[in-house]
Specification:
The complex is a heterodimer of chains A (480) and B (327). Chain A is of the alpha/beta class. Chain A is 34% helix and 27% strand. Chain A is globular, with a radius of gyration of 24 Å. Chain B has a two-stranded antiparallel ribbon with strand order 1-2. Chain B starts with a helix and ends in an 11-residue tail after the last helix. The A-B interface holds A 52-54, 73-75, 78, 84, 86, 90-96, 99, 103-104, 106, 108, 111-113, 115, 134, 136, 138, 173, 175, 267-270, 287, 289-291, 294, 455-457, 478-479 and B 6, 8-9, 183, 186-189, 192-193, 195-196, 199-200, 202-209, 266-267, 320-325, 327.
Chain lengths: 480, 327
């Protein structure tokens, strides 16, 4: 009766008293894509680590092909035929693609690695996937999308029959996603059991056959994708209806805050002109690599422009794309992170007082509903959504006139997303100007008063809220 | 065509550095034709042999994101052990001494490795500590006294100096170790695991490679080489005392860096390291000819390290051209 290739039944796992998984069950049938959804902290990554052999479950059963198995370590996982495509692209950048595919299981003869055989086998797998790169290339030279393909190739090289995709599209462009989906469908048709973890509902509805929802480590629902709606999935994930994902407030555009004229930087973007007014949320849409982040960095002043001008009379703040390396100092406490850009006010004579920093932090923890034990908790222990709130708080505390957000909700869960959108809207209502860079179309459409589209470093269109539709924006952003 | 295109960045770097070393050699030879005499070259190799073996061991450790500051102290301790053993039981032959130093060196290296692996202490702190401990142990072992040439047996002294086809046994040993490293680093599963663990420990973990255990293995091999070199050093210079090879760990690390081993781990080749040692060796032996003081040798090594690190950093710099990127 067990039609599924891999079954997890009542898995429990705790880390030092913190429960990560509690009665988690999941079935992965052959020849189907199962979408796993849940907010951050729902236990998805713990599940992936259990299937990879990194963690052992405290209780529960894993059945592979009907037989109970134990995944003692990563080698056991690989031997069973489970392959994982990690979001953060675990690759060996100094080694060739071929070696990446066969790490720790190189074809060998009399104890010596057989490079010829390894290269031939790697080339064969890459050809099967229609990969556009060579097995001899160092992995560090691949794009993120190509690294994903390499990880899939790695799984295929080990004849994996279960493939787990952990948020694979988080940093891919539209076209790269389409390419990835093509491969996923091909694997599905070949009879593999696929698990697809994603925050993006469009993808789930486009790609998945089945869904499973986790909430707080418990599997709350599972079924066929054709029988649910996005709203139902959100309700299942959050456990309550989310009031509004895009709480856009009505504002009227006021005085001009920022004027950019013919701004250029060699190799990155050219001839960019636009204005931003008080009360306005200006969306900047485009594919990854269109030069949007670079533009933000020049506006913020990290990089210098080669030509053109930026005129502004107010403070500019930037919430950068990568909150872990650019937005926060991870080992620092919430209070210390928020204090960092505000030391001139907090400590005008150069002496910091912990008390003032805590008070400032507590204000923002309350205002943005940051889930932290207190101002002293290190930021690295917070979830992604709460880390992002800390980054936003540290800049809003400066009371800037212009706020630049670069992919503000990338990789954070629905609840945190709605909160980030709410605070952005309030900032605009109170007279600020927002430049919001995003690759998330619903976000751009839901939040922006006006949308700029960039492609290959140039402005390719400007749309009012009324004019902006998915089709318009996509057409302007891609080569078509 | 494809052969050249597929040369890894590292092979290309090795070739470029080989050309540079050769140019340096030719320049010195041009000024002092005697420099290229076979006798002198054999002497150069003999002088560099211990550095080569130590640097190869050190390379393994740096490859897995470690560093071994205790390598010279390990050498000195094992060298004293060999000298004391030979004084107590002279005439036992060289074999027991080689085994003794190999094992004791490996144990000292393994001690570093365990601290780094199991206690997850930072390698630089661990080996800074063991560097002092091992030096201190020499004092305890020898009670501060020297072991001089007249206390060493004939066989003990003769082994590294024995000649075969015009090269000393010490030189042959260094060549043999180099050959093993060249083959093993490219072809052995263990070495490929070392590269993987050093290049990306987390990804290695997901591939079933214990990155910490790889560090332990690297420290142990490095220690074993240092131990044997301890005997060779003491026999070659015919004296053992607490401070032999004091500060030599810095020359070893310098040879690795000049030879293209990335301090961040995951990158390095045996050929590069040997070239780095020869480069240092040529400078060291030619400076007196030119009449320049030893101070300049350190100065030049330092400049070469900085230039080498600068060049490889430039090479790695990711060049983005967004205007032309495929959409």
């Amino acid at each position: 009766m067990d039609s599924s290739l891999l079954t997890l039944a009542d898995i429990r796992k705790s880390f030092g008293g913190v429960r990560a998984l509690e009665r988690a069950s999941l079935e992965l049938p052959r020849g189907a894509v199962t979408a796993l959804i849940g907010e951050n902290g729902a236990g998805k990554s713990t599940l992936v680590k259990i299937l990879s052999g990194i963690h052992q479950p405290d209780a529960g059963e894993i059945r592979f092909d009907g037989k109970a198995v134990r995944i003692a370590d990563p080698l056991a996982s690989r031997a069973l035929g489970i392959g994982v495509v990690h979001q953060e692209c675990l690759s060996f950048d100094n080694l060739s693609v071929a070696e990446n595919l066969f790490v720790n299981c190189q074809p060998s003869r009399r104890g010596l690695v057989n490079w010829t055989a390894m290269r031939a086998q790697a080339t064969a797998v890459l050809r099967d996937l229609d990969a556009d790169f060579d097995a001899d290339l160092p992995a560090g030279r691949l794009s993120i999308a190509q690294k994903h393909v390499m990880q899939i190739a790695r799984a295929l090289a080990h004849e994996s029959r279960v493939l787990i995709f952990d948020e694979p599209t988080a940093s891919l462009s539209q076209r790269e996603c389409a390419e990835l989906f093509r491969i996923v469908r091909k694997l599905r048709d070949a009879g593999c059991a696929l698990l697809f973890i994603s925050h993006k509902f469009e993808e789930i509805f486009a790609l998945a056959d089945r869904y499973a929802v986790f909430r707080d480590g418990v599997s709350v629902s599972a079924g066929k994708v054709s029988e649910v709606t996005g709203d139902e999935l959100i309700r299942l994930m959050v456990g309550r209806p989310v009031e509004q994902l895009f709480p856009k407030l009505e504002t009227t555009a006021g005085a001009e805050l920022l004027r950019v004229e013919h701004l250029s930087r060699a190799g990155e973007f050219a001839d960019i002109s636009f204005t931003l007014r008080s009360g306005e949320i200006l969306g900047v849409y485009g594919l990854v690599g269109a030069g949007r982040t670079e533009l933000a960095e020049v506006l913020f002043g990290i990089k210098a422009a080669d030509s053109g001008s930026v005129v502004t009379g107010v403070d500019v703040a930037l919430v950068p794309e990568d909150r872990q390396t650019q937005g926060t100092v991870l080992p620092f406490s919430v209070a210390a992170n928020i204090a960092l850009p505000n030391l001139a006010t907090l400590a005008p004579r150069g002496w910091c007082r912990a008390h003032d920093e805590s008070r400032l932090a507590r204000q923002w923890i309350d205002r943005l509903a940051i889930k932290a034990q207190g101002p002293e908790q290190p930021v690295q222990n917070l979830s992604g959504g709460n880390q992002q709130k800390v980054v936003i708080a540290k800049w809003l505390a400066r009371r800037p006139g212009v706020l630049i957000l670069d992919e503000p909700t990338k990789g954070i869960d629905v609840g945190a997303k709605a909160a980030v959108h709410a605070v952005t809207s309030e900032f605009a209502r109170d007279g600020g100007g927002v430049l919001m860079i995003s690759s998330d179309l619903p976000e751009i459409l839901g939040m922006s008063d006006r949308v700029l589209v960039m492609r290959r470093g140039r402005l390719r269109g400007e749309f009012t809220r009324e004019q902006a539709t998915s089709e318009n924006l996509l057409r302007a952003a891609s080569d078509a | 065509m494809s052969g050249i295109r597929t040369l890894s960045g590292h092979t290309r770097r090795d070739l470029a550095f080989a050309a540079l070393t050769l140019a340096l050699f030719l320049a010195v030879t041009f000024a002092f034709p005697g420099f290229a005499a076979p006798r002198n070259l054999a002497g150069l190799l003999d002088d560099t042999a211990i550095l080569i073996m130590l640097a190869l061991g050190q390379m393994l450790v740096i490859l897995v994101r470690g560093i071994d500051l205790s390598i010279a102290a390990n050498l000195a301790l094992c060298g004293m052990l060999a000298a004391v053993f030979d004084r107590a039981w002279p005439g036992m032959g060289v074999a027991p001494i080689l085994v003794l130093t190999l094992v004791s060196g490996a144990l000292l290296g393994a001690f570093n490795g365990v601290l780094v692996w199991k206690l997850r202490l930072p390698p630089i702190v661990v080996t800074l500590g063991t560097m002092s401990i091992y030096r201190g142990a020499i004092y305890l072992l020898s009670k501060g006294a020297w072991v001089n040439e007249n206390e060493m047996s004939r066989g003990f002294l003769a082994f590294p100096r024995g000649e075969f086809l015009g090269l000393t046994l010490l030189s042959w040993l260094a060549l043999a170790v180099t050959a093993v490293f060249v083959v093993a680093l490219r072809r052995s599963r263990l070495a490929r695991d070392l590269y993987a663990a050093g290049g990306n420990p987390e990804a290695a973990n997901y591939s079933g490679i214990d990155a910490g255990r790889m560090q332990f293995v690297a420290y142990t091999i490095c220690g074993a080489l240092a131990g044997v070199c301890g005997y060779l050093w003491v026999a070659r210079f015919a004296v053992a005392y607490t401070d032999i090879a004091l500060g030599f760990e810095l020359s070893v690390i310098a040879a690795c860096l000049i030879g293209g081993v990335a301090i961040a781990g995951g990158v390095g080749s045996a050929v590069g390291v040997v070239l780095g040692c020869l480069f240092i060796g040529i400078i060291r032996s030619s400076l007196p000819l030119v009449g320049i003081s030893a101070f300049w040798q350190m100065f030049i090594n330092g400049v070469v390290i900085l230039v080498a690190v600068l060049l490889s950093a430039r090479q790695r710099e990711y060049k983005r051209t967004i205007l032309e990127v495929r959409a």
